Amino acid sequence: MQALDIGLSARAMRGCALALAATLVACAPVGPNFKPAELQQVQSFSTAPSTAQTVSADSAFGESQRYAPGGAVPADWWELFQSEALDKLVRAAIADSPTLDAARAALLQARENLNVQYAVLYPSVDAVAGITREQVTGASVGQPKSPPSMFTLYNASVNVSYAIDVAGGARRELEALLSQIDYQRLQLEAAWLALTGNVVTAALQEASLRAQIRATREVVQSQQDILELVQRQFELGAVARADVLAQSALLAQTRAALPPLEKALAQTRNALAALVGRFPVGAGLPESELAQLTLPHELPLSLPSELARQRPDIRAAEALLHQASAAIGVAEAAKYPRLTLTSSFGSNALSSSALFGSSAAAWSLGAGVLQPIFHAGALEAQRRAAVAAYDQAYAQYRQTVLAALHNVADVLDALDYDAHTLKAQAEAEASARASLELARRQFELGASSQLALLNAERQAQQAQIGLVQAQAARLADTAALYQALGGGWWQRASNIEKGSVQR
Questions:
Q1: What is the pTM of this model?
Q2: Phi/psi at 308 (nearest 5 deg)?
Q3: Are 468 and 289 spatial neighbours (Cβ–Cβ below 8 Å)?
Q4: Strands, E assignment, 431-489
Q5: How many other CB atoms sit within 10 Å of the CB of residue 91?
Q6: Cα separation of 302 and 304, whole Å?
Q7: 137: how many CB neighbours lie within 10 A of its CB?
Q8: pLDDT surpassing 50 at residue 18
Q9: What angle do CA 337, 339, 342 make, to 5 degrees?
Q10: How far is 75 from 31, CA to CA, in rounded Å?
Q11: 208 close to 477: Cβ distance less than 8 angstroms
Q12: Euclidean distance between CA atoms 60 and 473, whole angstroms
């Protein structure tokens, strides 16, 4: 009869525990439910009056660019420059860059951490087996004069433990880990955008330096021809020795400008090799030339309200805000009761042959509740710290949005000024070139001084280099606009998460 009572009590205890667990699991987790941040809506990126298109110039890359509000930002935006060399560079970087591999590994780590945490929603089951050799004295059983006995104890059992998520703290931890996965995924998108943008910027810098070197060499050749003319004039007695020295000095100054440009070109090539994931020696990268590039004529212009969904840095900041919100729930749940159910079923025997006999069976069933009562304010302090961390994440989110709007506004202003600068530089270069030609003919005829010729040469050189720089700046700021608008990652057909990580 006593055995029956024990069995009924155990079943009753188990039934009550399961009913309580079901009730508690159905409860909503404590803490705030995350809602995306709402910021003040703005209608434009800049206070300056917007124009439908930029001005045009009579020069390479001087075409007018038209803005298309709400236009799509292509995922492979660099293809709009229609350069085979540029496309090869970007795709080589995507395939081999360790930056993307590191971001993919961080995303995989976040996902596996989530898989680890998912285990708290299920019971843990462990099998235990052991053999113990013991010696027991008579004193341990109240018979000190009895001789000690020695025996071997065999045991085998299955233990089950289940910590019920009473207040939802475990679920909030899972929510935080899910937000961490979102953050790492968006960090991967940001790494992709930064990588492609840096490759394009470096390639345009390379093209600009090559054009500047070529223009400088043309100026050197022109000044060399003029020097030969001045020397002939000197031999005929038409000019003084000082005029020859002045022209020689100008030629030497122009030649001195070549090594810094060549140095910058070599460093840019090294930087490109690093971006692509190759060593500088034997990188085998294609060379970028301004003449191989095309200026996109139509530029997309997203609405400011859409930018928060397009920029990966803003989305990543929002994921961190979500994670901070879930952390408040975790801190609040720590103040609530914690319920744990445990059970064990196995057998104990003095011989291995009797281990699984009916007489060796042993089991246990238990339930425990832990209610924090006094922790000297530590639990409440943890909750306040979590709230402060959320406020910090929210401020950082707002700062990220402001920086993004500022970035787009700067690029739009730069594009407008680039167009005017290129127009002015094209006119200045044409005028300086015509002035140099006129000064040269007049000097040959003796109708102009050496000083006038030197000034015309300097102006022509500065105008030619300035034109190349203005052309490259317009291309670079056009690329910067696609980056500032998010790079079109949401329209990519391929899976960015695919990639190999060396182990």
A1: 0.84
A2: -65, -25
A3: no
A4: none
A5: 15
A6: 6
A7: 12
A8: no
A9: 160
A10: 39
A11: no
A12: 12
